[in-house]
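=== How it folds ===
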Amino acid sequence: METQKETLQLIKGDKWLQPYREAITGRHNYALNKIKELTNGKQSLSDFASGYLYFGLHHDDCGWTFREWAPNATKIHIIGDFNKWRETPDYELKHIGNGIWETRMPEEAVNHGDFYKLRIYWNGGCGERIPAWCRRAVQDEDTKIFSAQVWHPAQPYKFKTSHFKASTNPLLIYECHIGMAQDEQGVGSYDDFRKNVLPRVIADGYNCIQIMAIQEHPYYGSFGYHVSNFFAPSSRFGTPEELKHLIDAAHEKGVAVIMDLVHSHSAKNEAEGLGNFAGDPNQYFYPGGRRTHPAWDSLCFDYGKNEVLHFLLSNCKYWLEEFKFDGFRFDGVTSMLYYNHGLGQSFTSYADYYNGHEDDNAVCYLTLANKLIHDINPNAITIAEDVSGMPGLAYPFDGGGYGFNYRLAMNIPDFWIKTIKEKKDEDWKPSTILWELTNRRKDEQNISYCESHDQALVGDKTIIFRLVDADMYWHFKKSDRNATVDRGIALHKMIRLATISTLNGGYLNFMGNEFGHPEWIDFPREGNGWSYKYARRQWHLVDNKDLCFHFLGDFDKEMLNVIKSENEFGQLPIIEIWHNDEDQILAFMRGGLLFIFNFNPTKSFDGYGFQVPEGNYKVVLNTDAQKFGGYSLADDKVEHSTLFDKELSKLGKGWMKIYIPARSAVVLKLSDIQR
């Protein structure tokens, strides 16, 4: 039995974790023993996670082989175009033990592009199913029925970039959705995105795209979060080859590609998914009351079953190996970690993470998944969507953590929304802002963000829409701005600058939000007449120089450039220079960059003083610049030199006196040190 005997580094580094040493060590040992069990102590975890190379439909020199795990089945037939959707002896599977069914077929038995399904019999019934390991599922436009499709192109895509290492300091993520990434009303494709959107991402300065809704999902409006076919890239966006081409094109331009991986739950669907695969509703899912997610109307995987671990871990490896993804944003991690899925729980003390209400099976799976991913690609990126703050989530496995590289700083968008909704501009406190933006475990990296796709969905509002509301439609022409628009533009820039400048690892933006996209997201559904009007991104708005949208887009681009100009920005400490809640002034430094914010809506300050490192400072970014929709009330060409102070000079500091207009922020760069 593998056990950790010495005190884990996670515990050593946080005295508040000492009372929970037994629980933390127990979870770590559980993962160590599970690895030994799955690998028999002889093979690697990567070897174990190769189920996709065994199950499903495969072609070799002898023809075709098909295998499926269906322990509850009594008989299985492959039906499809090749046998006119009838049961025939040549396409019947045989049970070979351990719940595995197999058939071998000659070369001419199936062809590229053929549609097929399994007809599975069990005691008391039968049903048509899409194979659990199928790599492509296609929906008939007329009947809306999904079928598996043989995918064996004569000329499979060959990657031009074989080895790619993402730039991660800092990681700048552009969160996107392929289908709604186009201006026209309809469903965009992988090729559309590669040709039309990827160049925008590159030009804006992001170094990573995070793609939603890759795994096949029957209902488009689920945003890709009710997955039915875990190994199939969604066919509504194009072919697997076109997805590979997109990823390769991004790599050629130095942009990493991660996908939103949904292992937290599965669609209930039976005909398309795993809901009742072979007459066993619990083949992949927890039994009893734990089977169904109470809030999502979906099914919860049984992470304590080795076959399920094999399926999910193989899924991780498949996307890394077959498509060259650079990692994953794991969806719904909070839901996985706790028996109550984190619903209605506030997580106010460390005891909330170690009170026996945690799903140790899920904790183990997430730990194994991270170890596997980083064994395959040490440079891979993994991000946990967790709102609970579980200690160790983004801490190395060897030190007692669960191995994620980052966790989403989900408190930040909540804070900004709450502030905008509930506080008058005069009540915005810089001390609170800085605290909320930096309130995190120092030894775990975060992805900071103002808003993601969650805030853009119908029923919610983006930041720009909360700030400007209906005036976005009537007063966003440069020639017809009003005070509401001016306020919204100013605060939109300041909120983003404050968020990215305090990052601890990375920053995320959802596509279109960088320029203040005016519409929410509403996928086609019965309630909107199955319209695509709001399931798109209106790029023409930011391209129109007569409108204000480009101000925000131009600012976002320059903001990223400034952040990237400071070497190793994400690793630099945040040194607070000053805050004054009455004046609503905040100033801090990271490396040679000095960030100064004036959140006061009405008061500008002339000659406001700060004690900063001696030297000359040049303005590198000003939210009030005319080119960003401001008024250029300060002269950005003026170089700011510190004033000598005998006592301060002993500390290497001097006084900086600067004019700070109301509701604006400026970034200055220390250009040289005075002697």
Q: What stands out?
A: Residues 9-46 form one domain. The first strand starts at residue 56 and ends at 60. The chain is about 25% helix and 25% strand.
